[in-house]
Design brief:
Shape: elongated
Structural class: alpha+beta
Largest sheet: 3 strands, mixed
Helix content: 40-55%
Order of helices and strands: HHHHHEEEEHEE
CATH architecture of the largest domain: Roll
Length: 167
């Protein structure tokens, strides 16, 4: 497994995988790459430098698998990780429609029927394609911790353009 692989690739799952699918793959991989299991196999093989290199690779894989699982099993960490993946993809492609501040967005307040009737704020911006960029108030807390920048990418609901939202 390469060091550039993302956590979904490490767990051999798609980004849309459910928690159960991630858990199932994690258990399979952890059994395959566990250092104790590798030590048992290396005891039965002749001693050579290639075996010790494989054990090192397996230990790295084991660590990567654990790191990936510990991030993706937590809904908050997974959401932030997914946002980081999205950010990295968009940095590779120059499809930024606009750079805005939170205050520039249109604001609408509503009562959340699914919750206990709390008031929520949603901010939107119209895209040139006719779609919308939607920013909910819960994401505001994440913008300060996001990638040590004060920026957040928001995708259009209809096209591949994004806006860069700054505080």
């Amino acid at each position: 497994m390469s060091t550039t692989a993302n956590f979904y690739e490490i767990l051999q799952c798609s980004e849309s995988a459910t928690l159960e699918e991630l858990k199932h793959k994690y258990k399979q991989l952890i059994l395959q790459y566990h250092p104790d299991k590798m030590n048992d196999l290396s005891d039965s093989l002749p001693s050579s430098s290639s075996v010790s290199e494989n054990n090192y690779d397996d230990a790295c894989s084991f660590h990567q698998i654990n790191t990936a699982w510990n991030t993706l099993k937590d809904p908050t960490k997974r959401k932030l990780y997914d946002a980081e993946l999205c950010q990295n993809r968009f940095q590779l492609h120059n499809n930024v429609f606009d750079r805005l501040r939170i205050e520039d967005l249109d604001t609408e307040t509503y009562i959340d029927d699914d919750d206990d009737g709390t008031e929520r704020t949603i901010r939107t911006w119209r895209c040139r394609c006719g779609g919308q960029y939607i920013f909910e108030d819960e994401a505001e807390a994440e913008i300060s911790t996001y990638n040590n920048t004060d920026e957040l990418l928001i995708e259009c609901t209809e096209c591949s353009l994004v806006i860069v939202l700054r505080r």
